[in-house]
Design brief:
The chain is α+β, with helices and mostly antiparallel strands. It folds into five domains: 2-149, Beta-Lactamase, CATH 3.30.450; 167-266, PAS domain (Beta-Lactamase, 2-Layer Sandwich), CATH 3.30.450.20; 273-443, 2-Layer Sandwich (Beta-Lactamase); 456-558, Beta-Lactamase; 561-754, Hypothetical protein af1432. It is 45% helix and 21% strand. The protein has 29 helices and 23 strands. The strands form four sheets. Strands 1, 2, 3, 4, 5, 6 and 7 form a seven-stranded antiparallel beta sheet that branches. A six-stranded antiparallel beta sheet has the order 15-14-13-18-17-16. The two termini are 92 Å apart.
C-alpha cells in the first residue's frame, strides 16, 4: 500500500518539475501532498530535502524551514525496535538504483519532540522523462497503535494457547456446515497419555477420530448445540481414541462464530473406582447370602470367596491357608485366575517353621501386603515366595476369638501397589470368611455336643425354653427317672417336679434367669429325691433349648456342713481367680484400667442400697469385676482406636457380651454371673444388645451392673473422647430412668452418689 502511494506521489512530483505551468502546478500539488494523512518528504538528486508536509513535520518534531535544505539523514533518526541498532534510510539506495524500497519491519522513528514512533515507510524514485532519477519521495506513517494491537493479539493468542495446554481437562473445537459432519479444528486431550498436541487429529472428521462416537450422547449433544445453540452437559460416557479408552464428561456450547466447543474431563479413574466398589459390594453380598443360607457348605463358600476376591482384584492367584493341629499351614484351596479353576496344592503348604515365621509377620495386622518382594528384607518367607515366582502379596489373617486360624491370600507374579480400597475389600472378604469358619465350628460343636449328650453318664435332659417340654433325654436320665425315652419325651419338667417350689425353679430355667437350682424331683416309682439342676442354653436352627444336668444331692445334703466349709474355701479361691482375670483384662486394655473395679464397687453399693442379701450382692460384685472379661478376644487396635469404629468393628464390639457369657457360663461362681455379663448392655425397653430383652426379662443384678457400667464409662476417659464428667452421667441415667434403665436401680444409684460415693481414678489412665 505504501509503495503504490509513493509511486503516485513520484509521478506528481515529476509532473510538477516538467510542467509548462510550473508555478501553478507546484502550488496545486503542494496542497494535495499537504492534505494526505501520511507523512511525505521529497529530495533532490543529492538527497537534500526539497519538500515536507505538515504530517512529516509533526512526526519528525521540526518545522518545515528546519527540514528543507538538509539531508534526510540529518533530520530522520530511525532504528530497529527489536535490536535498538540504527536503521538505514533507503534514500541513497533509491538514488543509486532507481528502484523503490521499503524500511525494514519493526522500524522506529526517534522524534525531536522526545517521542518515539513505530513507522512503516517506503521510498520511490522521482524520474525525468529520460528515466534519470532526479530525486526521492519518502512516505511514512505512524503505526504505533497498530503495532500495539498486533502485540496484544500475539500475547492473547499465546495466553489462549497456554490456557488450553494447561487447563484441567480437554478441549475440542468443531466446525460444521450441515450439523452432521463435524471437523476437528483443535483437540487438547483430557489425559496426559493421549497425543498432547492433537496434530494427527486436527482437520479430521469427529467420527474418524473417536470410534463409535456417533452412537454416543456426546455426538447427539454436539448436533443439538450446533442446531439450537443452548449449552448441553453430557454425563460420564465411554470413549475410544485409537488404542485407548476411558470415560469422560463433556460440557458442550456454541461460539458466536458458529463453532462448537466441548470442554471434556476424564473421569476414568473415578468410574473405575465406582465399578470396583459395585463389583466388590456385589461379591460381598453374594458371600453374605451364602453364609446365611440354609444349605451352607463351607467348602463351596471358600471356593466362592477365593473366586470373588481373585476376580475382583484381578490377581494371578488367590487361596486360603488354614492352620492345622501341629502348627502347619495347609493350603486348603487356591485358584489361578488364568483358568479360574479351584484346586488344592499340598506342595505350597507351610511347614511348622515357615508357618511360625508367617504367623509372626501377620500377627498384629488386619492385612499384610508386599508390593515387591525383591525390595523386602530377606527371610525364609520371602525366599519361599521367590521360589514360586510370587512378587507381590495381599494376605488377610483369619481370626476366631482373636486367634489366627489361617489366612486369605492374593498373589501376583509381578510387582503391584495395593490400593486402600483393594486392601479394605480383601479384609471384608476375610471378615465374612471368618464368620463362615465360626459357623462351621459351631455346627461341628453341635454334633460333638449331641454325641456327648447321648453317651454321657450324667443325668441330662433337653427342654424347650418356652414350654418346659422335654425334647430329649440320655440313657442316664431314663435310668434315673425310671421312664423309657419315649415316655420322657412326652412329659414336661412340671411332671417331674415334686412341689410348687420346683415348678418355680423350672420357670426360671425357661426364662433363662438362673444357672442352677436345688429342687425335689419324683421318679416313676413315686420316690422323692433331692437334686441340683444345672442349666445352660443350647440353640438350634429350630428352637432355643436348655440343657439340664440333674445331680442327686441326697447324700450331699447329709454332709451340708462339710460342704459349706468347702464352699467357703472355694469362694476364697474363686475370689482370687476373679481378681486375676480382672488384672488380665486390665493388662489387655489399659485404656480402661480400673473400669471393672469401679463398676464392681458402684454396683455392689447399689445392691446393698436395694437390700439384696449377701449372696446376691456378692454375685453383683463378681459380675462387675468380670463384665468386660470378653475384651481378651477383641483386637487391641479396636479397643484403643481413637476414631469412629467401622460397622464391622462395631459388630465385633456388640458381640462382646456373648463372648463373655461363653467364657463364664460353665464357671460356677455361686450365682448367675454369666447371665449378668451377657445382659449388662441390654436395656429395659429392648433397645440394648445382644438379646434385646425387656423389663422383667432382665434380672435385677443385670440391671444394677448396667447402670453402674454406664456411669463409670461416662466419667472415665477413653482414647476416642475425654471424660464427660459425673454431672453428665447423672443426667444420662436420670433422663432415661424408666426408659433405658430400671427406675428403682437409678434411684438407688443416685442415693449412693449423693451419700459421697467416689469413683476411684487411682489406677485409671487419664
Amino acid at each position: 500500500m505504501i509503495l503504490s502511494v509513493t509511486e503516485r506521489l513520484g509521478k506528481i512530483i515529476q509532473r510538477i518539475e516538467t510542467s509548462r505551468k510550473l508555478s501553478e502546478n507546484k502550488e496545486e500539488y503542494r496542497a494535495t501532498l499537504s492534505s494526505i494523512g501520511d507523512a511525505v518528504l521529497s529530495t533532490d538528486a543529492s538527497g537534500t530535502v526539497t519538500f515536507v508536509n505538515e504530517v512529516a513535520c509533526n512526526l519528525i518534531g521540526l518545522s518545515e524551514s528546519s527540514i528543507i535544505g538538509r539531508r534526510v539523514s540529518e533530520v530522520l533518526e530511525v532504528f530497529n525496535e527489536d535490536s535498538g541498532e540504527p536503521a538505514i534510510i533507503p534514500v541513497e539506495h533509491v538514488l543509486k538504483t532507481g528502484k523503490k524500497v521499503g524500511l525494514a519491519y519493526h522500524t522506529a522513528l526517534k522524534s525531536n519532540n522526545g517521542k518515539t514512533y513505530s513507522i512503516a515507510a517506503s521510498a520511490s524514485p522521482i524520474s525525468r522523462e529520460d528515466g534519470e532519477t532526479k530525486g526521492v519521495i519518502l512516505v511514512f506513517r505512524d503505526v504505533t497503535e497498530d503495532r500495539k494491537n498486533e502485540e496484544r493479539i500475539v500475547q492473547s493468542e499465546a495466553r489462549y494457547r497456554e490456557l488450553i495446554e494447561n487447563m484441567n481437562g480437554g478441549l475440542l473445537i468443531l466446525d460444521s456446515e450441515d450439523g452432521e459432519q463435524f471437523i476437528l479444528k483443535e483437540f487438547k486431550a483430557p489425559r496426559e497419555d493421549f497425543c498432547r498436541t492433537g496434530i494427527s487429529s486436527s482437520g479430521k472428521e469427529l467420527r474418524d477420530v473417536f470410534t463409535g462416537v456417533e452412537k454416543s450422547g456426546f455426538f447427539e449433544a454436539v448436533r443439538k448445540v450446533w442446531k439450537e445453540g443452548a449449552p448441553e452437559k453430557v454425563e460420564a460416557e465411554k470413549y475410544v481414541y485409537g488404542d485407548q479408552e476411558g470415560w469422560w464428561t463433556n460440557y458442550v456450547y456454541k461460539l458466536p462464530s458458529g463453532e462448537v466447543v466441548s470442554l471434556c474431563y476424564d473421569v476414568s479413574e473415578s468410574f473405575r473406582i465406582q465399578e470396583f466398589k459395585k463389583k466388590t459390594n456385589d461379591g460381598l453380598l453374594t458371600l453374605s447370602k451364602m453364609a446365611a443360607g440354609s444349605g451352607f457348605s463351607l467348602d463351596e463358600f471358600m471356593k466362592s470367596a477365593v473366586r470373588i476376591v481373585g476376580s475382583s482384584l484381578c490377581v494371578h492367584r488367590a487361596g486360603i491357608y488354614l492352620l492345622n493341629r501341629i502348627g502347619e499351614m495347609d493350603l486348603i484351596i487356591s485358584s489361578d485366575q488364568v483358568d479360574g479353576e479351584a484346586r488344592e496344592d499340598k506342595s505350597r503348604a507351610m511347614d511348622r517353621d515357615l508357618a511360625s515365621e508367617y504367623l509372626h509377620l501377620i500377627q498384629a495386622k488386619r492385612f499384610f501386603s508386599i508390593s515387591d518382594v525383591n525390595q523386602e528384607e530377606k527371610n525364609n518367607f520371602i525366599a519361599s515366595l521367590q521360589e514360586v515366582g510370587v512378587e507381590a502379596i495381599l494376605d488377610i489373617p483369619l481370626r476366631i476369638r482373636g486367634v489366627i486360624v489361617g489366612s486369605l491370600f492374593c498373589d501376583m507374579n509381578t510387582p503391584r501397589q495395593w490400593t486402600s480400597d483393594e486392601k479394605s475389600f480383601a479384609a471384608s472378604v476375610g471378615d465374612v470368611l471368618t464368620l463362615a469358619l465360626e459357623e462351621d465350628e459351631l455346627v461341628k460343636s453341635e454334633h460333638r455336643y449331641k454325641s456327648f449328650f447321648k453317651m454321657n453318664g450324667a443325668t441330662m435332659l433337653l427342654i424347650d425354653s418356652t414350654t418346659g417340654s422335654i425334647v430329649d433325654s440320655n440313657e442316664a436320665a431314663c435310668r434315673f427317672y425310671e421312664y423309657d425315652l419315649d415316655t420322657l419325651k412326652g412329659m414336661s419338667m412340671k411332671d417331674l417336679a415334686a412341689n410348687n417350689e420346683s415348678l418355680v425353679a423350672i420357670r426360671k430355667f425357661a426364662a433363662r434367669r438362673s444357672l442352677s437350682v436345688v429342687s425335689r424331683q419324683k421318679k416313676a416309682s413315686g420316690k422323692i429325691v433331692d437334686v441340683e439342676i444345672f442349666a445352660s442354653p443350647f440353640s438350634t436352627e429350630d428352637m432355643d433349648l436348655i440343657n439340664l444336668i440333674v445331680v442327686d444331692i441326697t447324700e450331699a445334703l447329709a454332709a451340708k456342713n462339710k460342704l459349706s466349709e468347702a464352699l467357703g474355701r472355694l469362694h476364697t479361691a474363686l475370689e482370687g481367680a476373679v481378681k486375676l482375670v480382672s488384672k488380665v483384662v486390665k493388662a489387655r486394655d489399659p485404656c480402661t484400667a480400673g473400669h471393672q473395679k469401679n463398676v464392681s464397687r458402684l454396683a455392689t453399693a447399689i445392691a446393698e442400697r436395694l437390700g439384696l442379701d449377701d449372696n446376691r450382692s456378692r454375685t453383683v460384685r463378681i459380675a462387675g469385676l468380670l463384665h468386660d472379661v470378653d475384651k481378651v478376644s477383641i483386637p487391641v487396635e479396636i479397643l484403643s482406636k481413637p476414631v469412629r469404629l467401622t460397622d464391622l468393628e462395631w459388630s465385633l464390639i456388640k458381640r462382646h457380651p456373648i463372648v463373655g457369657y461363653e467364657i463364664l457360663y460353665d464357671v460356677k461362681l455361686g450365682g448367675p454371673i454369666a447371665e449378668i455379663v451377657k445382659n449388662h448392655h441390654d436395656r429395659i425397653n429392648g433397645s440394648g444388645y445382644p438379646e434385646g430383652l425387656i423389663g422383667s426379662e432382665l434380672s435385677l443384678e443385670s440391671r444394677i451392673v448396667a447402670v453402674a457400667d454406664v456411669v463409670e464409662a461416662m466419667v472415665s476417659h477413653r482414647p476416642y473422647r475425654a471424660s464427660r464428667g459425673l454431672g453428665e452421667a447423672v443426667q444420662e441415667i436420670k433422663g432415661n430412668s424408666g426408659v433405658l434403665y430400671d427406675e428403682e436401680v437409678v434411684d438407688a444409684c443416685l442415693a449412693v452418689i449423693d451419700s459421697g460415693f467416689k469413683i476411684d481414678r487411682s489406677d485409671s489412665r487419664l
